[in-house]
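User: Quick sanity check before I run a bigger batch. Here is a single chain. Can you write out its predicted 3D structure?
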Amino acid sequence: MRVKFTVNGREQQADDVWEGESLLYVLRERMGLPGSKNACEQGECGSCTVRLDGVPVCSCLVAAGQAEGREVVTVEGLADFAEQRAQRGGCATGACGTAAGAASGKASGTSLDAARRRQAKPAGADGRTGEQAGLAPIQQAFIDAGAVQCGFCTPGLLVAADELLERNAQPSDADIREALSGNLCRCTGYEKILDAVRLAAARGDALTTGTGA
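Assistant: Done. Predicted structure follows.
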């Protein structure tokens, strides 16, 4: 079967997809986006976390056909979507596009038309391949806080943490632990990871305060 969906702001298509093929496999093997890691294949470790219509999911458990016509954001797209959020002063995608987000008065998520317009950008200028020069704030915070070791779990942690900070700019430690509870790291004691999310939140708050918002 053929599946079409938006990945990091670009419409993508995969042909000859069999019914049991996972979204993770399609992203890695058919679309050349290896950032989402294939580890447990049981939805237990979170290494394959992506955002599907804004919601963090384990892509190893999502059938590729379930993504038809929907919006996927992978770790390769975080920097581009962070830039979009900064320009819009709200959410690029995800929680702010849900009913809960609307009730809180936040901006709505990325529309399909907006995603299509972004296709006019050169391929190297966005997160399609992860080759863009810049980093999302959460990515830079992970580096600065020393939260990256082997790196295998890092993509999933980054996606989950970015989603948390999009819907809650000032999370408590309990909020951070809950948001990352589905992501396992075998290298660390998690403290540096928590430090990284705290650092990204603090930097975001400082920017907001500095602009008088």
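The first helix runs from residue 23 to 30.

User: Great, the batch can go ahead then.
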